[in-house]
Amino acid sequence: MVSVRVVRPGLMTSVQDPGRWGYEHLGVAVAGVLDDYAAVWANRLLDNPPQAAVLELTISGPELVVESSGYLALAGADLSATIGGRPWNPGEVQRVETGETIRFGARRRGARAYMAFPGGIDVPPVLGSRATDVLLGIGGVEGRPLRVGDVVTALRSGGAPRIAGWETCLHRRRLRVLPGVRRDRFPAEAWAKLVTGEFRVSLHSDAMGLRLSGPPIPSVPGDAISEGMAIGAIECPPSGELLVLLKNRGTLGGYPALAHVIRADWPALAQLVPGELVFFDPVTPEAAYTAWRQQQSWIEHGATLPRDIPIRAPIAGGVDRNDGEGRLLSAPGDVVAAGQPILDIISLGQRMTVTSPVFGILLDLVRDGSWVEAGDEIATIRGWDDGGTD
């Protein structure tokens, strides 16, 4: 069975699985993988069950030496991985041989990558999960991130070279939100500032939550009784910054939640890094449910390789990569959904929005302020058709 030894642990490398669900009433956080979409893809590539434990690699990956040969899968962020000097791209299964070194270099896209082993990682479960909870010191390898000298071993042998038929990293800056359960306690201007403002991920973000700086959001009196806090809740502390709760958050809290990031965009939260811009778009509960079902369909049925799709200008005019309120619509490297706006073309005083025809990665985008003629290529999307077929 394949195993690797840690030479350098990286910034934050830990054993994780979907998390420790069912114990929040006892004060035990869910923890587990922050990007469950990418982690499921890593496991799917090796025909593992979705609950199999994986390595979660954060921003700066580890250096590992292969102790026993076998197959490994990688998904999620692109951290410039190599095996014995040859490239290892996210969404690939590769065979590693005894003595080879796995290294990670510069972060190219996203924040967290996931390395899967055949059958999962062999560590004992605690409260039904192998996930590392560093606050409680349980799960994974002694309840802590990996250290130099740790050996990580698969539960079984198996695997074969394979490439994902779908993008495994949902890195996007525009996050969809629903009104929070306490929105009625906020002044009306709070919601308006949230859905029209431009926010930036703070250096003080971690696995408990993302801190966002931006236009101050009016808070409400802190006289509410503490209540259960949902993953994805957008809290508004008195400081005026925003706090978006992730899976390691406390189970109870007192800050009111103005909004909630929809379930389908939790993976995108996990792939944001300090300094990146974030925008919030309101959606209906029906749209949130549809997005979640579509995402599950990508995992279940995504089986085709992507193709580069040119997007052409429908009319002549000037390019505006911001929406009518001045917020950036998209940028190269973003993951875009089918129907998502990517830029506007302004002609004769009218604004026409150009949307993506497919789910994919925005590779190239015409320069803001450019003049284009009808039929000019204005963007390229490396995309997948929604049904998983060409």
Automatic annotation (TrEMBL):
Top-tier EC class: ligase
Enzyme Commission code: 6.3.4.6
GO molecular function: ATP binding; hydrolase activity; urea carboxylase activity
Ranges where the Carboxyltransferase domain occurs: 25-298
InterPro entries in the cross-refs: Biotin_lipoyl, CT_A_B, Cyclophilin-like_dom_sf, PxpC, Single_hybrid_motif
Keyword ATP-binding carried by entry: yes
UniProt feature coiled coil, ranges: none
Top-level taxon in the UniProt lineage: Bacteria
UniProt keyword list: ATP-binding, Hydrolase, Ligase, Nucleotide-binding
Name assigned to this protein: Urea amidolyase related protein
